[in-house]
Structure formats: structure tokens, C-alpha cells
Amino acid sequence: MHLSAANHHIPLSDGNSIPIIGLGTFSEPQWTPKGACATSVKAAINIGYRHIDGAYIYKNEHQVGEAIREKIAEGKVQREDIFYCGKLWATNHEPEMVNPTLERTLEILQLDYVDLYIIEIPMAFKPGDEIYPRDENGRWLYHKSNLCATWEALEACKDAGLVKSLGVSNFNPRQLELILNKPGLKHKPVCNQVECHPYFTQPKLLKFCQQHETVIVAYSTLGTTRNEAWVNSSSPPLLMDELLNSLGKKIHCFGFQHPIFAFSLTEEEMKDFEALNKNIRFVELLMWSDHPEYPFHEEY
Q1: Which parts of the sequence belong to the NADP-dependent oxidoreductase domain (predicted)?
Q2: What are the residues whose beta carbons fall under 8 Å from the beta carbon of 94, sequence distance 6 or more?
Q3: Is 58 designated active site?
Q4: Nearest to 160 by CA among 243, 77, 100
Q5: Rounded to whole angstroms, how far apart are CA atoms 219 and 87?
Q6: pLDDT band (50, 70, 90) for residue 256
Q7: What is the CA radius of gyration of the chain?
Q8: 270 CB contacts (<8 Å, ≥6 apart)?
Q9: pTM for the structure as a whole
Q10: How much is the pLDDT for 6?
């Protein structure tokens, strides 16, 4: 079988599946040329990507939708070939806001449904249209989280056919268990999207999620932006790592050893690779570390 992103999926606990390789569409707006997102998504679909990860707060979902619709019109793909993941932001956790927020995303994308919709962070902010609400003194305006109530509203969106699968992001085990143990739970979280890369392999969280049939979806797999406003830049970029570069030259890509890939590392290379883990998180979000539901104070 030809090994590509297009024909390899991981099963989810709700009977759906997720393509194993995805394209993240976040970019720093001030550093990104106009139209670059649409160009990137179209190029990605052309070479075999089928999993596209986006969010309303990235401010480019209209470009993602444009690119997907163009490729469908060309006959390159059908809608069911594309797996789009959208995200519910922290200012829209109130149950009555969940459905309208997802409907807004669908209107921007000009799609009838999204394949996966996830709670982007477990921390709630002041409800409203301001993405990053602050008071007159610049202090963040937080809101009391009720993750179970938010989840029930998401379940209603799934039942209405607006989304096929539901998940979370940046949740620690305690926060994930709040939903898993919710009385009357109808739809389990199929995934937890978290930072995971050779410097931060998250073995304990991975084991916990596996025990609960929750797939780990990795973000920042090759590092992330170096914006010091919200990123820990004390560690050197992954793409400058000597071992990763030497392995990359050998296998023409970076990643974790997995049976679907047409390469394997030697036992010695695997030991060297595993030794890269420094338990260093790039995406610390320390500006919100005083939020009652800040997820990264706990061990994992």
C-alpha cells in the first residue's frame, strides 16, 4: 500500500476516525502574508493532507473554507475526504453560546458540518465577542468554568448533526475526568489535543488517555512560534536539534516511530531519540497561570 497522510486514519471511540497527519493553520497574523493560509491549505490537500486543524480565533477560517471548497470544486477531493477540526474558544463556554458559536464557524467556512469540534482550553473567560477580555487596568477577565455544562451543549450540537466528533484540548486528567464522569454523559471526548514533541513526550498523559479511549492529538510537533508573549523560548528550537536533523536527512521527515511509516529507527537511534525528552513545554500560557482552571500546575 502507498503510505501517505491520505490513507491512514486512527479510529476514534465514537466510530469515526481521524487522519494521522494534520495541517495546523495557526499563524502569527503580524508575520503572515495575506492569503498565505488558503495557499498553504490548497498545497497541503494537493500533496495528500486530509486533516486540517483550525480555530475561529486564528482569524483565517474563511481562507481554510475557501481552499477546501476550491479543491472540492476541482474534483480533487470530496467533502467526506476532508477532516476539519474547529475549536470552541474560552469566551464562548456558556451553554447558550455554544451552538451559535459553532454555527458562526460553519458560516465562515461555508460548510454544513465540522468533523471534530473541541474545547480549546479548559479556562473560561468573560463571555462575549472580545477574544482576550481585560479590564481597564489590563487584568484578564476570567469567568467561572462549568465544563460539564459546556460539554452538554456540545453534545446537543453533535445530536443536531453540526459536528461528527467532540473532543478537548489542553486538559489535564482531572479536567478530562470531570467530563468522563459526568452523570448522563452521551458522547465521550474522542481526543485531547495537547503539546507533544521530542522534547515533551507526555508519557503519563498518553497512558491516562489511552486508558480512557481518548486519542492524543499532538500540536507543536516540530516546535512552535517563538513569540515570547506566550511561548517559553528558553529551549532551542526543535528544528535546530542536531539529532533530529541527522535523522531527518536519513528518513526525509521528522516524527515518532509508528508502524504506518515506511521507515524505522535502529534500536540505538530510538534510545537517542527518547533521550531527547526534556519535559519542556513550549506553550506554557503563563499569562493565565492564575486562572482557577489553569491546566499545567498539575503533574501532567
Answers
A1: 21-237
A2: 127, 143, 150
A3: yes
A4: 100
A5: 14
A6: very low
A7: 19
A8: 257
A9: 0.91
A10: 59
C-alpha cell, 263: 521507515
pLDDT in tens, 105-156: 999 999 999 999 999 999 999 999 999 999 999 999 999 999 999 999 999 9
CA atoms lying within 13 Å on the CB side of residue 1: 9
DSSP class per residue in 223-259: B----TTTS--SSPPGGG-HHHHHHHHHHSS-----T
Q: Chain-wide mean pLDDT for the chain?
A: 91
What the block records as the C-alpha cell of 182 is 459526568
Lowest mean pLDDT among 101-115, 120-134, 171-185, 257-271: 257-271
* CA pair distance 219, 134, nearest whole angstrom: 27
Sorted by where each starts, the structural domains of the chain and their CATH numbers stand as 5-241+276-288 (3.20.20.100)
Catalytic residue among 58, 142, 199, 294: 58
- For residue 229, which amino acid is it? A
Distance separating alpha carbons of residues 117 and 55, to the nearest angstrom: 9
Residue 60's nearest CA partner among 90, 23, 94, 95 is 23
Query: Could you tell me which residues are annotated as the binding site for substrate?
Result: 143
Secondary structure of 55-99 as H, E, C letters: CHHHCCHHHHHHHHHHHHHHCCCCHHHCEEEEEECHHHCCHHHHH
User: Are the beta carbons of 160 and 113 closer than 8 angstroms?
Assistant: no
One-letter amino acid of 131: I
List phi, psi (to 5°) of 256: -90, 150
Over the stretch 68-97, which tens digit does the pLDDT of each residue have? 999 999 999 999 999 999 999 999 999 999
